[in-house]
Amino acid sequence: MIGPVLTHFQGVILSLSGSGLESNKSVGAPSDRCCLQACPRLSWETERILTRQDKTQPSCPEGASRAAQSHFAAPVSSYVRDRLVKPEVRDRRAAMDRSATVEHYKAAMLLSGAGDALGYRNQLWEYNESGPAIHQELKELGGLKSIKAELPDWPVSDDTVLHLATAEGLATGKMGEELLHEVAARYVKGMKDMDGRKPGPSSILGVSLLKPGEEEGFRVPYNSEGTGCGAAMRSMCIGLRYPKPDQLLSLVAVAVETGRMTHPHPTGFLGAVAAALFTSYAVQRRPITTWGLGLVNEACPIAKTFVRGRGFAIEEAERDWGYFCDKWQWYLDLRGISNGVGPVIWPSSYDPAGRDSAYKTFSLSGWAGRSGHDAPMIALDALLGAGSDWEELMSRAGFHGGDSDSTAVIACCCWGLLYGRQGVPEGNYSNLEYRERLERSAEQLYALSH
Ligand SMILES: [Mg+2]
Question: Is 116 marked within a binding site?
Answer without folding.
Answer: no
